[in-house]
Amino acid sequence: MSERKMVALKIEQSPCETCPANAQLAQMGLKIDNFDRVVALAGNPNTGKSTLFNALTGLKQHTGNWPGKTVTRAEGGYEFNHVRYKLVDLPGTYSLLSASQDEEVARNFILFGQPDCTVVVTDATALERNLNLVLQVMEITDKVVVAVNLMDEARRKGIEVDTRSLSRDLGVPAIPVTARSGEGLQTLLTTIDGVISGEILTQPRQVRGTAEFQRAVDELVPYIQQLAPSVPNPRWIAIRLLDGDARVQQALLSGELVELTSAQRRQDTRFSGKIALEGRQ
Amino acid sequence: MTLSNPTHPSQSQTESPLSPQDLLARVEALRPKLGDNFRDEIVKSLYAEAETIARRAVHAKGEARYDLDQRIDRLVTSPIFGLPIMLLMLAAVFWLTIVGANVPSKMLADALFWVEEQAAALFTTIGIPWWITGFLWHGVYRGLAWVVSVMLPPMAIFFPMFTILEDLGYLPRVAFNLDWLFKRAGAHGKQSLTMAMGFGCNAAGVIATRVIDSPRERLIAILTNNFVPCNGRFPTLIMLATVFVAAAFPPLFASLAAAGSVVLVVLIGVFFTLVVSWALSRTLLKGEASAFTLELPPYRVPNIGRILYTSLIDRTIFVLLRAMGTAAPAGAVIWVLGNINVAGVSLAQHIANFLNPLGGLIGLDGVILLAYIIAIPANEIVVPTMMMVYMGTGMMTDIPSLEGLRTLLVGSHGWSMLTAVNLMLFSLLHNPCATTILTIYKETNSRKWAAFGALMPLGLAFLVTFLTASAARLLGLAP
Amino acid sequence: MNFLPVIFWGLLLALLLAAVFHPQRGVLARWRMNSRSGQRELVEDALKYLLKQEQSGRHAAPEALAGAMHLSGSDVLRLITRMESQGLIISQDGGLHLTAEGERWAMHIVRAHRLWESYLATEARLPLNQVHREAERREHRLTAEQLNELEAALGYPRQDPHGDPIPGRDGQVAVAQGMPLTAWKGETPGRIIHLEDEPPLAYAQILAEGLRLGQVVRVLEASPQRIVLSDGENEFRLAPAVAANVFLEPIPDTQAAGNGSMPLSELPDDTVAEVVALDEACQGYTRRRLLDLGMTPGARLQPEMRNFFGDPRAYRVRGTLIALRKEQADQIWVRPLN
Q1: Looking at the domain assignment, is residue A171 inside a domain?
Q2: In chain A, which residues have their Cβ closer than 8 Å to the Cβ of B54?
Q3: What is the mean pLDDT of residues C172-183?
Q4: By C-alpha distance, which of B22, B8, B3 is closest to C171?
């Protein structure tokens, strides 16, 4: 796996679109009816999510520089290493807790849309603020890749980001990219592939709250595991229930949560079948 | 607080099947123990963790620098220069649009009308009946040619410039500069962002109101978006500014004066936005301004290639195609109305005559009102429709150039300065186009608000133009 | 012109209108009272009134109930009979007592009322002096389950916008603390934790003076004629009868004047400061939003620019420039750092 990463890192030096080294990526624009994997793009507003989305899909989604301009989610496709991906650009949010309209869209997609991987796009010049969202996404799913975007801007401002330390601390891969110039995209794609296929194991860091909070969560987790044995994130569900999240409560009562997990398992087998067919395992 | 049923699960109980309701009951029992500010604690520990991780991963050479951004920001939001800079930028955009569009507009018109002439001549030589030639070339084609030559050049200049401002990150600064006014009006500061979108297209502006979280303030933004002249209405405003305002100035300042008058119209639009927002938040949509937080993103160098693409393909061509799609049938309708004669007068003239008294009351005339009725699907075709009706009466066969236009309007149809001013006001305030009304309906999911969003501006347009017309007549400024 | 017919028709119209719209005896009022939902509303209003009386240690007589609800003697008797048959109240010693069931139902209405007030004030942003009236109308419309949803959507508020505690799902209500301003002793500053919203006239006066929940005030002068307060900047004058509707509590340490904290809006330009706390008066969506933007205790921020009007102001916090109106900045307590 580390070898694969090294190769990718070398490729990254030549970000031109027509070079043979780049031929693995094929932008598929709106052709997304027949895809193998779903990748969600989350992130704070103004972190260049839409730029990254356009760079990967070849679409020309409008990228204005004002908060909230992606008001609905956009979808596009790309093919990488002969696997077709559907990419979903979620509205930019600071958090997933406030339950404003855009946060609801983003949160519901990550939870109920069951993307195979969620890429959290962060701004290298304001990492602290952006990590707040990363930590929240990592509570929901462990298939997370952090794209540290705007590396060029950070360099200009004299900010250095040590992505290795970041990866280690977060427990998920953090990849430096500059979506505008295409720098780092190859590595990002290889990493997404690795996380989905399980070649890269992630161990998301979990935030510990006060002692009472921890006790309450610990008490609820066994119940949730008993109710929905294969739910991947009982801890997060416990937190949401304690916070009084109406949508999660409703999903619990309607049995949606239980079905969700079985759908996830079906998908897993489908993918491993596909991967086996392509001789990649 | 004590709890009535402290049923703590023992091992034996866990084996019995657990229902979701039991779990929720458990949650309810636990929640009060977590103290008052449970959510505060969650966010606090998230940020604390984020801080720790970021501190380890980020190394700033010295303090993080925002020098350039800061310097620009201090200038464009400065108490003294902020507002003037904003107005100057707006004026510059309009000036460049007017000046730059003049020549290509004329060239396009020349070429397109030459084609019409040749094609019509060709049709006549092969012996195709006159009414087919007339319908196709003088009706449908002429409508299209008008729309393309009047709209394409200004849009191709206006949209890229606007997109540059957008990509730079200037729009949030505008919202920042103007927020105080919106607060006074009981509205949300982000309303100015949605208004900026409205410059392109009011329907897009209505959709953009989703950035406003408070339903009340969002509804205000939706209902007042129409008071920003959209791209479909700019040609009307620019034409009037060029033909009437600019003509009153020496040639050197003509284009400046034209740009200035368009800025003035936009400011009047902003004024009405604020007044109507204020009135709404004191009557139908009562309430106080909600929490306002606005991120001012760092300035980014725009990507010129992308800007040209989005503004030319996504916006210009899109708007143009839409305009052409409605202009072609409208051209056909006009031609039919203009060529079917009842009692020796064309149908169009009949309708125009019927509307004349109402039009006269508000300083306009029947033809203009007819044009606005036909242009309900898309405002872009107001001017072409007017021209076609005026020309259909056989007064002018010349290719419409700006000078020719002036002669036609002032000389043959009795336009005065009042007509020009009131047409500008009417164009600014009247009901939104059908697409926008439909969008309002979709966004609010209410027929009531969609109807209100259409009728309130229309009523206001009639009221304001009636007042200006009456005032002008009382002062003896207009016949 | 002949005025007689005008006067005649005018009088007739006025009479007709009165017959229809008279608040107690009009056709509409009768119809409302006799309609099903109208009857329920009457019962619920009566329950609420009786609960309030019981909480202040009194047992209302039927006449008092009739007076409070603007009902005629026969109407109120019919109402009492109906409520007794439903097992909600029992008459004893000339007073009306709530049964356990009656009290449970009354609590539900109080809970509905206060949750609605929270919703109307924090989410719908209705002016504070209109919140009560609107909540009076809406409190009858929700089931217990819908109320729970509303409560969750509001983020489990503990108090309504006047500072009254909101009863929990189990009908438990935290005991209201605080001391009326008229009984507040001496110079020590206190924080306003409750503004009684009835009678509306007194409440309107309190609001008009500019007093609000969470404000820290000091009593400057207390005489039988008036009570003068100060929040360090403005002075407020209240009649004692009005002042009795303002309740104070001792201030928690974090916001005590001595520790040098101030509202963010008063922080001088270009001074770095640290967030101490969000004001208790800031609840609901606004609080969540401010927290999500990183305004958590300990976060550093610095005012960076003002616009032409001086409001809003933009602050750099956690690397991002964020503009806040004065109203929001008022609710963030900060301590300047040197």
Answers
A1: yes
A2: 127-128, 131
A3: 73
A4: B3
For residues B336 and B138, the answer to whether their CB atoms sit within 8 Å is no
Which of C98, C121, C149 lies at the terminal end of a domain, its last residue?
A: C98
Quick: pLDDT tens for B278-310. 999 888 887 766 778 888 888 888 878 777 877
C interface test, pick of B72, B78, B176, B177 with most C CB neighbours within 10 Å = B176
Measured between beta carbons, the chain B residues lying within 8 angstroms of C130 are 286
Which of C91, C8, C1, C14 lies closest to C46, judged by CA? C91
Among the partner-chain residues C156, C293, C319, the one whose CB lies closest to the CB of B31 is C156
Radius of gyration of the CA atoms of chain B, in A:
29
Do residues A157 and A118 both lie within one domain?
Answer: yes
Higher pLDDT, C42 or C24: C42
User: Residue A69: enclosing H or E segment and its boundaries?
Assistant: none
| pTM for the model | 0.73
Query: What Cα–Cα distance (Å) separates residue A69 from each residue in B197, B228, C85?
Result: 10, 19, 60
CB distance A132–B46 less than 8 Å?
Answer: yes
Q: What is the pLDDT of residue C196?
A: 80
B265-293 b/e (C-beta count within 10 Å ≥ 16 → b): bbebbbebbbebbbebbeeebbbbbbbbb
- At B285 the pLDDT is 82
Do A99 and A172 have their domain in common?
Answer: yes
- What is the pLDDT, as a whole number, of residue A123? 92
Q: Which of B15-19, B193-197, C240-244 has the lowest mean pLDDT?
A: B15-19
* Number of helical H runs and strand E runs in chain A: 11, 8
CATH code, C93: 1.10.10.10
CA distance A53 to chain B (A): 13
C271 and C212 within one domain: no
Any idea what the Cα angle at residue A102 is, between residues B322 and A55, rounded to 5°? 65
Residues C239 and C264 in one domain: no
Residue A203 within any structural domain of the chain: no
Structural domains counted in chain C: 3
Q: Which of A152, A171, A197 delimits the end of a domain?
A: A197
* Co-location of A166 and A48 in the same domain: yes
Task: Name the residue range of residue A180's domain.
Answer: 2-197
Domain count, chain A: 2
B positions 288-317 inside 8 Å of A (CB): 294-295, 297-300, 303, 306, 309-310, 313-314
Q: Does some domain include residue C122? A: no
Q: How far does A95 lie from chain C, in Å, by closest CA?
A: 6
ipTM of the complex: 0.80
What is the pLDDT at residue B408? 75
The whole-angstrom distance between B210's CA and the closest CA on chain C is 16
Q: pLDDT tens-digit profile of C111-149?
A: 888 888 888 887 776 777 778 888 888 888 888 888 888
Would you call C292 an interface residue with chain A, using a CB distance cutoff of 8 Å? yes
Answer with the one of C205, C236, C251 that is the final residue of a domain: C251
The answer as to whether C81 is a domain residue is yes
